[in-house]
Amino acid sequence: MVVSMSDAQTLLEQFSQQMADAVEQVGRSIVTVYGRRRQPSSGFAFAQNLVLTASHALERTRDLRIGTPDGRKLAAELVGRDDLTDLAVLRVGQLDVPTASQTAAARVGQMALAVARPGEDGLMASLGVVSKLLRSPAMSRARWAGRLDRVIQTDAIPYPGFSGGLLILPSGAVLGMLTSSLLPGIAAAIPLDVALPLAQDLAHHGYLKRGYLGVLTQQVVLPAAQRTESRQRGLLVVRVEDNSPAEQGGMMVGDVIVSVDERPVNDADDLLAAVSAASIGQPLRLGVLRGGVYSTVTVAVGER
Amino acid sequence: MNAVHVVTHLEDGLAALLAYACRGVVQVRTASGFGTGVVWRADPEVVEVVTNAHVVREARQGVVQVVTHDRQQEVARVAIFKPEVDLALLRIEHPHELDAQAVLALPFDTDGRPRVGELVFAIGNPRGEPHVITMGVLSAWSEALAGGRRIPVLRSDVLLAPGNSGGPLLNARGSVIGINALIVGGDQSVSIPATVVCEALDLRRWHTKPTMRAA
């Protein structure tokens, strides 16, 4: 196929205009969030009269306001927030802003635009690529591990107030909600398919339900006879709560938890990550040493 | 057109655009340092270059040296000096040393309002390195304090460094939408919009339509 240079230039121009179109279109769903003394942040409409924003940018819980794309200032009420996932939901009467709905799955290398509305100057954008897709198990020490399935890392500049804005493709499809607090010093986005179910939970309950087992544990070094190369330490159960999932599953004080679903458990963070990642009601197979003998106990994750 | 073709054509378009635009960008040298300039007029008898006022502030007797993309050198006089908007116009009259054909006047886009999210390119001489190209998008329309008054500015995420000052911020058509001016921007990349440039420097005969359709 022979294409002239001017066709190539037309394509470049079209691509450029397409990106500006995408920013404009998704910008109709993005609002300014006034929730701290200095730099306002951003948020976006995800359902009727509901805005999803970044929890860390709300330094107060009262006197919250949002600014709409058409210049209205509206009072907002904090419905729910969760600091570990950095999500917060605001209810805004008469919001009348279209919801961001068209989403796409992120792929490493895709061009991406960070779009936000961090103040009176209107929309802001920066360009980058999807740098990396972080999955929860690989980041088990991160505070969001187990609570956010995936996080997108991008090299688009996170201007002040970009948290709560959207990372989009040049086509306008939304990849996720921007936040600067999950990865220190780097712009990240929570994929919309991960964020929206949590946002719905926050809207309905005001908090995120957490899975729990109902045991209090203490890390112990295993007796020499029980140690293997991959199994050096375990968690000694020092208390089992009454009527807890652990009690119903048959856990007993004195059990030493050494694995969850065949994965070794060395400390309380390992157990917490496994429980957080499980859905409510999901059975977990706990490997325990009871009286020096290995056995398994199955516990259905409870909620509270 | 399949995806591979689209990408190839985008690459071709990008390369052609930037090869063209480099011909309209010059290095501006004074005794104390250097910056970048944009050729906006390239007639056989006169060549005019737009740059930042702070780039030519130290010009001795109002004279600076201009170096073209193909390493030709010529002496230019500071014809207009507007420190309040950080702009200056340099004039080369009867450029005997300079092959005026070799340089190209870049169109200044004063009709369209640049849009947030559109592609932008900067060409300049960061730290003295000639004709370095950086790409990004227009981030926002904003305002900055220049000489005690607020002027509209374009913010972008293109990488700028000292030496980029006075150079063009181009759109995907190859039109100049702004003049890069690091000093008013603090930590962010800031450009003075083409409309402000044309008004301040009285560029009455600015190009009415982009010329980049050849090649």
Describe this structure in words.
The complex is a heterodimer of chains A (304) and B (215). Chain A has 304 residues and is an alpha+beta fold. Chain A contains four helices and 20 strands. In chain A, the strands form four sheets. In chain A, strands 1-2-3-6-5-4 form a six-stranded antiparallel barrel. By secondary structure, chain B is mainly beta. Chain B has a domain at 23-93: Thrombin, subunit H, CATH 2.40.10. In chain B, the strands form two sheets. Chain B has a six-stranded antiparallel beta barrel with strand order 1-2-3-6-5-4. In chain B, strands 7-8-9-12-11-10 form a six-stranded antiparallel beta barrel. Chains A and B meet through helix 1 and strand 8 of A and helix 1 and strand 8 of B.
Structure keywords:
heterodimer; A: 304 residues; alpha+beta; 6-stranded antiparallel barrel; 20 strands; B: 215 residues; mainly beta; Thrombin, subunit H; 6-stranded antiparallel β-barrel; 13% helix; globular; disordered C terminus
**What's the overall average pLDDT of chain A, rounded?**
91
The level of helicity of chain A is: 10-25%
CATH architecture group name of the domain at 23-93 in chain B? Beta Barrel
What shape does the CA trace of chain B take?
A: globular
Mean pLDDT of chain B: 86
Main sheet: strand order of chain B: 1-2-3-6-5-4
| Coarse structural class of chain B | mainly beta
Radius of gyration of chain B: 16 Å
Order of strands in the sheet with most strands of chain A: 1-2-3-6-5-4
- What order do the SSEs of chain A take from the amino end to the carboxyl end, as H and E? HEEEEEEEEEEEEHEEEHEEHEEE
Contiguous helical run count of chain B: 2
Annotated CATH topology of the domain at 101-195 in chain A:
Thrombin, subunit H
Tell me what portion of residues of chain B adopts beta-strand conformation: 35-45%
Précis, in short:
Chain A has 304 residues and is of the alpha+beta class. Chain A has helices at 5-27, 192-205, 245-249, 268-277, and strands at residues 30-34, 41-47, 50-54, 64-67, 73-82, 87-91, 111-116, 124-135, 150-154, 166-168, 174-179, 187-191, 211-212, 215-221, 233-240, 256-260, 263-264, 283-290, 293-300, 302-303. The longest helix of chain A is centred in the N-terminal third of the chain and has 23 residues, at 5-27.
